[in-house]
Each structure stands twice: as structure tokens, then as C-alpha cells.
Design brief:
Layout lengths: L15 H29 L2 H32 L2
Length: 80
């Protein structure tokens, strides 16, 4: 049987900083995707695609904000 070779010790576990960064990056990606969809929807007259793009932009913005909040909480906890 092969053993899992990933190092999952607490020292190498993902930190909240990693999680916050991931949320910010994924939020930016979702926002960008939404802008593209909204633009394509506008150009093609596809209202559904345009609305989906608007929703993706909002979702991305929320995820970015979540990442910023995580980072601020971590910073606050680390400085106590």
C-alpha cells in the first residue's frame, strides 16, 4: 500500500493568511469573469448572460471582502 507522502503536520497546514489570500484571488477571478460575461451579454443582446455576469461580479466582490476580513481578524489576533 502506498502511503500518502504529503506533509500535513500542523506547521505546514494552510494558515488563515493562505485562506485569506485564496479568497481574495478567487474573488478577483470571479469578478473578472463576471465583467467578461456582462460585456459579452451586452454586446450580443443576451440578457441572461449579462445578468449572470452581474451576479458573478457581486459574488466575487463578496469573496474578496471575506478574504480582507479574514486577514484583518488574523492581524488583530496576532497583535493581542
Amino acid at each position: 500500500m502506498d502511503q500518502d507522502t504529503r506533509n500535513t503536520t500542523p506547521e505546514n497546514a494552510p494558515t488563515s493568511h493562505d485562506s485569506a489570500e485564496k479568497d481574495r484571488l478567487m474573488g478577483n477571478a470571479r469578478e473578472t469573469k463576471g465583467r467578461v460575461e456582462e460585456g459579452l451579454g451586452s454586446l450580443s443582446g443576451d440578457e441572461q448572460l449579462k445578468e449572470k455576469g452581474t451576479g458573478d461580479q457581486a459574488s466575487g466582490s463578496i469573496r474578496k471582502t471575506k478574504g480582507k476580513i479574514k486577514e484583518r481578524v488574523k492581524s488583530w489576533v496576532d497583535h493581542r
